[in-house]
Amino acid sequence: MPHSTRLRPTLLAVLAMFAVATSGRAQLLTANTLTAFDPTYSFNNGVQLTNFGATQTFSNISSITDLTLRFVTESTTSFSTTSMSYAFGSWTGSSPGTPMDVGNFDIADSATWAAAGAYKYLDVTFDLSSVAGSLTPATTYGLSVFRNLAAADFRLAQAIGGDATYADGTGYASPGGFSFGGLDPASPINGDFAFQGAITPVPEASAVSVLFAGLFAGTMVFVRTRRRRVVESAPACA
Predict the structure, then answer these.
(1) pLDDT tens digits, one per residue of 187-213
(2) Exposed, middle or buried: residue 58 (CB in 10 Å: 0-12, 13-18, 19+)?
(3) DSSP states of the chain as a string?
């Protein structure tokens, strides 16, 4: 059997481990706390945007393509389309850092919200691909929402699960936070808001170490196997 054929399984294994090690750094995942949404809990514990600004933070990530936030209100509440503001930027501790994108968005009138028993909810998606497509993993970022003018009684929904809901971030409430700079000081809400996003996480150092340890081991097997077969194929000395 030709050596190239005999070496192929080992070579393929090495290449496979290399592919896993490199793709793990750029894998796009969906962070989702919407599965931990309970209308009653979310309304009672969510941030009432009439009086507060609200921020969800994200750490150890290299990009965010889009992010969907869920708002909740009581089923009997009625209001027309309401203008709100948002800001995406760096976040340090419980304070906003440098804004990267600031703009306005509309909350649709209450008649269009989805029914959920005694409550109803609305999902709003923010396209962050132009500002958050390349982020610094060592920096924490936050998406904040706050009112422009008087807002109706709806709240940014909080997800059930406390601190364990989303491992690399938390939610903050800022009293009187009606601008990005006004979000300081903020208080953590002991958990996360109900959201879903296309987020690229950075693998933990331990996971990367395991991957590259496997790659190194596979490479050594390949090298040793090749050397042995080169020796075996060498002509015997007279």
Answers:
(1) 999 899 999 999 999 975 433 333 333
(2) buried
(3) --HHHHHHHHHHHHHHHHHHHHHTTS--EEEE-GGG--HHHHHHHSEETTTEEEEEEE-SEEEEEEEEEEEEEETT-----EEEEEEEEEEETTEEEEEEEEEEEEEPPGGGSEEETTEEEEEEEEE-HHHHSS--TTSEEEEEEEESS---S-EEPBPTTGGGSSTT--EEEEET--SSGGG-S-EE-SS-BSEEEEEEEPPPHHHHHHHHHHHHHHHHHHHHHHHHHHHHHSPPP-
- Residue pair 47/173 in contact (Cβ under 8 Å)? The answer is yes
Interatomic CA distance for residues 37 and 6, integer angstroms: 54
pLDDT tens digit sequence for 63-100: 999 999 999 999 999 999 999 999 999 999 999 999 99
Question: Which pTM does this prediction carry?
Answer: 0.76
* Band (224; pLDDT cuts 50, 70, 90): low
